[in-house]
Amino acid sequence: MSEEMTTKTMTFEDKPVVLSVDHVYKNFKLPTEQATGLKQAFINWTRGIKGYKTQEVLKDISFQVHQGEFFGIVGRNGGGKSTLLKIISQIYYPNQGTVSVKGKLVPFIELGVGFNPELTGRENVYLNGCLLGFTNEEIDAMYDDIVEFAELEDFMDQKLKNYSSGMQVRLAFSVAIKAQGDILVLDEVLAVGDEAFQRKCDQFFTDVRKDPTKTVILVTHDMGSVKKYCTRAMMIKDGEVAAIGDKESVADQYTLANLEAEQKKAEKQRAKEEQKGLYPNGLNEHCPLLRTINVSPLICKSSDTFRFDVEYQYDEPGDFYLAIALHDIARGGITYDTGAKTFKMTKHGHQTVHFEMPLNLFNNGEFRLFTSLRTQSAVDPNNTDLVAVAIDDNACTFVIRDERNRDYALLSDRAMTITPTAEESGVEIVDPGLLAQLRINAGEAE
Amino acid sequence: MKAIEQLRDRYSYGLTILRGLVKTDFKLRYQGSFLGVAWSVLKPLMLFAVMYVVFGKFLRMTDGTPTYPVVLLLGICSWNFFGEATSIALHSIVDRGDLLRKIHFPNYIVVVSATLGSMISLGINYVVVLVFAFFNHVQFTWRVLLLPLNVFQLWVLALAFGLIFSTMYAYYRDIAHIWEVLQQIIFYGMPIIYPLSYAQEKGGEIGKFARLELLNPIAQSIQDIRHNFIAPATQPTVWNQFGGWIPRLFPIVLTVVLIVVGVYVFRRNSKKFAEVM
Predict the structure, then answer these.
(1) Domain ABC transporter, which positions (chain A) (predicted)?
(2) A87 lies in the same domain as A32
(3) What contacts A425, CB < 8 A, 6 or more positions away?
């Protein structure tokens, strides 16, 4: 595994650099007062008001992309991703630093730029193509491909305004991917379109990955597509490069940054609500405090045991119980539940209790723990009443990431296998990893 | 040879876009209207009819020559070109904002294409003027050959104003209104609906200074167009009204200054357009 990684790194560094971003710094002047008129500008000038405040969007960004790479840029909203993309595409200019590009760079900040509803499909293809920097002859050469890919042969002489929105997107995307640029810059274009369209995107990206002459720079929130397509990734945080290199580790860092940000937000929210004397969603005056807090780190391996605390405040007399449910966020559904009357609490007041659970059963995923506080139902002895539940910010979210795991199904091979029966001779197990796992499972069973 | 190739490489992208934008704009200009391109001809003709009746017949502002109606039409067409080109150019950067924020291309092209679109209308109008001129038995002279130079100067002026105003408009939307008013002032400060001789004769004391109007490069180029195209005998120009070379060359120098300032201002600010709009 590690050997394979090093050979991969070697190959991309051997290739020539096609995009080099060197110490780029960018700030924006955000108007504090509405200054679109001469009057306001004059008033501000006479008063000596600047009328804007400076916001640093990119602080010191340096990186290089080599030919043939599929380079992912991730980061939280407002982190400067799109600004960086626009600087790479030379739509914005950096205040300091330089960007140098070798080859033809085709940016797709948006699909169908310059599309005009009053023009026909054919005219729009030519207009869009020429805006992207292609000559008429070049577009002539691409035209049939584009139309075929968009499956719009019968509609090219119709005005664009008579197209359905799906047809418009198809046309725009066809132009985008059939455009023969050397470097493609894509900003979240994957987020649109129906399933069939998504499949086409998928096919295109898989193909372009194999082409050693094409370089792709993709900005996205979707860790799935980063892991699937990218050869390398970079994370931007607060205008700086927070991580660059192996896509897996960058993706994990991004997930962690998101979780941390959520936690911070939750704490702020709690502080605010405490000040106001309000109870967070799910809590009330009987139980003003109930939260699930991680003790283990938020990103775990399958071999880890996840430890967490439940903190509560309950002062009413009588028996009460804690019930904990494990939800699978990405796949949906309730993975596990302790049952309502399993944990009877022995201490009233403000308490913290510790729990743990094994993670070995699961494949990679994002999970959330919900804790509820219950009392004996007065009407039905077999049932409990819900007093409070730790949802939203009081719930605990964690992530499982393990090289041994796969991403698709919930249960790992270690927890579950499907095997051909002993008599079956028509099945051969291809994956050696799975075979080894099967042997382990069999050994354990014995 | 190599220099030419380099130049072509540098500007071929711009030229392709320019061609695309001009074509699109012209196609879309009269989109959905019943008469289509005919409006390019009809609009100045109608304006001409109104002005000819009001100023020529009622107010008797003519210079009495038989070519006066054609000269009036020519003046109106030329001024219309200037007014239209500058107004469209003024809005062009902001109107094309969606483009400028999404892809990188030399954004002066947007302004140039705006002025060139009006140039097409001007060409059509000149054909109409030519037809009128034939019916009016206008005697053409070798001076017609100078016409392209004069039209070029008028276009350069329109482009200069377009570059300056489109830059200002990106920051301050007031410019659109200011320019509308300024256009009226400039229009009446030029011998277009009235002959220069009319102002000189009826203007009294001030009339003596009427020829100074010709120092305005817009007036100078439009008068040159009239002089060279239709009526060399009757149309006063800066060349036959002033003796010294300083006043004669003044409008030309001013034109050059304006375009240099325009290009400078535009280039200085063009990198910021995508951000400030």
Answers:
(1) 38-263
(2) yes
(3) none
Share of chain B above pLDDT 90, in %: 31
CB pairs under 8 A between A and B: 73
Last residue of a domain, one of A207, A222, A255: A255
Can you tell me the distance from the alpha carbon of B277 to that of B262, in angstroms, rounded to the nearest whole number? 19
Residue A130 touches chain B, beta carbons under 8 Å? yes
Q: Which of B21, B103, B165, B270 to mutate to test the interface with A (most CBs of A within 10 A)?
A: B103
What are the residues whose beta carbons fall under 8 Å from the beta carbon of A335, sequence distance 6 or more? A326, A327, A328, A362, A367, A410
Question: What's the CATH code of the domain at A236?
Answer: 3.40.50.300
Residue of B nearest to A130 (CA): B17
List the CATH number of the domain containing A310. Answer: 2.60.40.1930
In the predicted structure, residue B189 carries a pLDDT above the cut 50: yes
In a domain, A320, yes or no: yes
pLDDT category at A8 given cuts 50, 70, 90 is very low
If you count them, how many residues does chain B have?
Answer: 277
Q: DSSP secondary-structure letter at A441?
A: H
Residue that terminates a domain, selected from A239, A255, A271? A255
Per the model's pLDDT, the better-predicted residue between A22 and A180 turns out to be: A22
pLDDT at res. A402: 84
The verdict on A209 and A337 lying in the same domain is no
Beta strands across the sheet bearing A96-101: A96-101, A17-31, A52-66, A240-245, A232-237, A70-75, A215-219, A183-187, A105-108
Which of B28, B100, B174 faces A116 most closely, judged by CB atoms?
B28
A58 lies in a domain? yes
Kindly identify which residue of chain A lies nearest to residue B173, measuring between CA atoms: A37
Can you read off the two tokens belonging to residue B248? 């004669």
How many domains does chain A fold into? Answer: 3
B83 against A184, higher pLDDT: B83
| Domain assignment of residue A139, yes or no | no
In a domain, A84, yes or no: yes
> For residues A32 and A85, which has the higher predicted lDDT (pLDDT)?
A85
The whole-angstrom distance between A211's CA and the closest CA on chain B is 25
Concatenate the DSSP letters of all residues of B86-108 into one string: HHHHHHHHHHTHHHHTTS---TH
How many angstroms away from the CA of B104 is the closest CA of chain A?
Answer: 5
Q: Note whether A306 and A390 are same-domain residues.
A: yes
Distances (CA, A) of B158 to B84, B89, B105: 9, 9, 22
- Would the CB atoms of B103 and A91 count as touching at under 8 Å? yes
The answer to whether the CB of A203 falls within 8 A of the CB of A196 is no
Residues A334 and A393 in one domain: yes
Contact residues for A344 (Cβ-Cβ < 8 A; gap 6+): A319, A320, A321
Sign of the alpha-carbon torsion through B178, B183, B186, B188: negative
Query: What type of residue sits at position A253?
Result: Q
Domain range spanning residue A296? Answer: 279-400
pLDDT tops 50 at residue B86: yes
Is the backbone of residue A392 left (phi > 0), alpha (psi -120 to 50) or beta?
left
How far is it between the farthest Cα atoms of chain B?
63
Q: Is the pLDDT of residue A446 over 50?
A: no
Long-range contacts of B248-251 (CB under 8 A, 24+ apart): B250/B215, B251/B214, B251/B215, B251/B216, B251/B217, B251/B219, B251/B220, B251/B221
Residues A245 and A310 in one domain: no
Q: Answer yes or no: do A54 and A93 share one domain.
A: yes
Q: What are phi and psi of A178, to 5 degrees?
A: -85, -15
Other Cβ atoms closer than 10 A to A69: 23
User: How confident is the model over A341-380, as pLDDT tens digits?
Assistant: 888 888 888 889 999 999 988 988 889 999 999 888 878 8
Nearest CA of chain A to the CA of B106: how many Å? 10
Sign of CA dihedral B270, B271, B276, B277: positive
Output the pTM of the full model. Answer: 0.72
